[in-house]
């Protein structure tokens, strides 16, 4: 981490493939990381250098949101495998805990607008795939 970059307090909900990769990256970059998942076994995806904390809990329960220290979060990632849960996490992070930087994975492209209207950044795998496939079809991808 560069001297100019302040260490962030990052909370990640969902320790699947994506959540664990981001947790490992953020931890190795010197940030304070808390990963929340309802399945304790999911934490096996975190590498041996991971220096953050893990919380076993249901992200759809407000108590879990409080337990992970969301009130001091600089950044929250809602990366569970359910759009409704990710919306619940995101809205609470934004409005109950005043987290400025909230990023959610959204599976259904039709739901992106409601997240973004509430100041939540989104990552939609379907949209990313469509954009990439368009590049392949039009031949505009980098070789």
TrEMBL record:
<dbReference type="InterPro" id="IPR050721">
    <property type="entry name" value="Trk_Ktr_HKT_K-transport"/>
</dbReference>
<dbReference type="InterPro" id="IPR006036">
    <property type="entry name" value="K_uptake_TrkA"/>
</dbReference>
<dbReference type="GO" id="GO:0005886">
    <property type="term" value="C:plasma membrane"/>
</dbReference>
<dbReference type="InterPro" id="IPR003148">
    <property type="entry name" value="RCK_N"/>
</dbReference>
<keyword id="KW-0633">Potassium transport</keyword>
<feature type="domain" description="RCK N-terminal">
    <location>
        <begin position="7"/>
        <end position="127"/>
    </location>
</feature>
<keyword id="KW-0630">Potassium</keyword>
<keyword id="KW-0813">Transport</keyword>
<dbReference type="GO" id="GO:0015079">
    <property type="term" value="F:potassium ion transmembrane transporter activity"/>
</dbReference>
<dbReference type="Pfam" id="PF02254">
    <property type="entry name" value="TrkA_N"/>
</dbReference>
<dbReference type="InterPro" id="IPR036291">
    <property type="entry name" value="NAD(P)-bd_dom_sf"/>
</dbReference>
<protein>
    <submittedName>
        <fullName>TrkA-N domain protein</fullName>
    </submittedName>
</protein>
<keyword id="KW-0406">Ion transport</keyword>
């Amino acid at each position: 981490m560069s001297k100019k970059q302040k260490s962030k307090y990052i909370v990640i909900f969902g320790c699947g493939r994506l959540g664990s990769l981001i947790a490992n990256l953020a931890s190795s970059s010197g940030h304070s990381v808390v990963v929340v998942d309802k399945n304790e076994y999911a934490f096996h995806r975190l590498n041996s250098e991971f220096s953050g904390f893990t919380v076993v809990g249901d992200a759809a329960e407000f108590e879990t949101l409080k337990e992970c220290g969301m009130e001091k979060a600089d950044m929250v990632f809602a990366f569970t495998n359910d759009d409704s849960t990710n919306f619940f996490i995101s809205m609470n992070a934004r409005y109950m805990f005043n987290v400025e930087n909230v990023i959610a994975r959204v599976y259904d492209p039709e739901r992106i607008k409601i997240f973004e209207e509430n100041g939540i950044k989104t990552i939609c795998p379907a949209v990313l795939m469509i954009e990439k496939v368009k590049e392949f079809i039009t031949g505009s991808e980098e070789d």
